[in-house]
Amino acid sequence: MPTPHIRAARGEIAPIVVMPGDPRRAARIASDYLEDAVLVTDVRGILGFTGTWQGRRVTAMASGMGGPSMTIYATELAREYGVEQIVRVGTAGAMSAGVAVSDVIIATGAHTDSGMTASRIPGVHFSHLADFGLARAAVDAAATLGEDLETPVRVHAGAVFTSDHFYLERPALTAALTAHGTLAVEMEAAALYAVGAAEGVRTLAIVTVSDHLVTGESMTAEERETRFDTAVRIALSV
């Protein structure tokens, strides 16, 4: 049955969802990777397409930006459509000197400053963790994919920081998180992992580093498209 935010009929969304933030990227994943992809939802401009990838049904659907939006869509996919696996593919800003622009990060965990987590289990510092099996499969897939690329892409596995703020500059916080091994900042992984834990869905975030908070470097338009493709291929492989 359609929800307030997803118009797809029951059965039109696959058990596996690859989830970029941008609806246009969902459309691109559908057109470039999925066979026989069909638009199944477009409420509020959040596009979702279902097709097949190497014989398996997959839905490519956008999440919008930020934790609240991700939480709404991931929860409805889990509760109303029986989705079993959600893999976020998006971008992030590097915080660590060991991570460069255009690298790919498999987010094994996500710290956050979001009030959504504080209200989920009051009095507890909830740990936002990816599904271990998906994370391990992604690392293995990245290694195999790297052997097939003319220009290998560096892939990291580790924690990211999920923030509700995009423009707020907090150099002291960035330095402290980096000192504790945090690789990059983004806006959705912690929310996805919290929904995964609450709803029994396997979740993972794979992000491409589009810019660097410390050095000020950023991707070219061509690099954004190439490296995004790498993350999508890893996501589909798991």
Spans of 5+ residues with little confidence (pLDDT < 50)?
Answer: none
Number of strands: 10
Q: CATH homologous superfamily name?
A: Nucleoside phosphorylase domain
- Shape by Cα distribution: globular
Strand count, sense and barrel status of the largest sheet are: 5 strands, mixed, barrel
Rg over CA atoms: 17 Å
Q: How would you write the strand order of the largest sheet? A: 5-9-8-6-10
User: Which architecture per CATH?
Assistant: 3-Layer(aba) Sandwich
Overall tally of structural domains: 1
- Give the H and E element order: EHEEEHEEHEHEHEHEH
The percent range for helix content is 25-40%
How many DSSP H or I helices?
A: 7
Task: Give a short synopsis of this structure.
Helices cover 36% and strands 28% of the residues. The chain has 238 residues and is an alpha/beta fold. It is globular and about 45 Å long.
What does this entry look like structurally?
This protein has helices spanning 23-33, 67-81, 115-120, 132-148, 171-179, 189-199, 221-237, and strands at 16-19, 35-41, 48-53, 56-61, 85-94, 104-112, 128-129, 155-162, 184-186, 202-212. It is α/β, with parallel strands linked by helices. The protein has a single domain (16-237), classed as Rossmann fold. Strands 5-9-8-6-10 form a five-stranded mixed beta barrel. Helix 4 (132-148) crosses helix 7 (221-237). The model has no long low-confidence stretch (mean pLDDT 93).
Keywords, separated by commas or semicolons:
Nucleoside_phosphorylase_d, glycosyltransferase, 7 helices, alpha/beta, EC 2.4.2.3, Rossmann fold, Nucleoside_phosphorylase_sf, transferase, single chain, 238 residues
